[in-house]
Amino acid sequence: DLVHLRTGAPLQFIDITELVRERVRRSGISDGFVNIQSRHTTAAIIINENEPLLLDDLEKILEAWAPKTRHYRHDDLHARQQPLPPDERANGHSHARAVYLGTSETVNVVGGQIQLGRWQAIFLVELDGIRPREISIVVMGTKSDPIPLS
To answer: CA distances (Å), 133 to each of 6, 39, 42, 145, in order?
Structure first.
């Protein structure tokens, strides 16, 4: 199942927990797992707490990890060997941040419910500006048998 959305900021944490819950519910899978994957090299999927001060801290940590102001060879568009699309941008920092965070998460499904802890939420993390994004959500497992009517 592909989900299309448009992000709204250069660095943004988008809580997609309810979206994932709905995809699991619609799948009819009772027990198994759901995998949530970013289809981009400059966007990540993470699980953490949806608390504004923590998200602000994480933004600062990402900036310290891979500052936008650092020189990245990837950003030297004239030195790159392969043909570049016309909308190519200097985004080495976004790629570095994505490596740090990762592209996917897998969550157990039990009784048709995703098994997150009390404070856990699933996020798409935009790392490269306002743009369209795709998330792949795959639910795998067994469907519960309907209870026969007697």
So the answer is: 6, 8, 10, 36
pLDDT digits over 7-39, tens only? 999 999 999 999 999 999 999 999 999 999 999
Could you tell me which residues come within 8 angstroms of residue 44 by beta carbon, excluding any fewer than 6 positions away?
A: 38, 97, 98, 101, 102, 103, 124, 125, 127
Stated as kind and residue range, the H or E segment containing 56 is: helix 52-65
**For 33, phi and psi rounded to 5 degrees?**
-155, 165
**What's the CA gap between 41 and 92, in Å, rounded?**
10
Structure confidence at residue 145 as a pLDDT band (50, 70, 90): low
Contact 108, 114 (CB under 8 A): yes
Q: Which tokens is 111 given?
A: 């009784």
The pTM (predicted TM-score) of the whole model is 0.92
Separation CA 59–CA 42 (nearest Å): 15
For residue 25, give the H/E element and its range.
helix 17-27
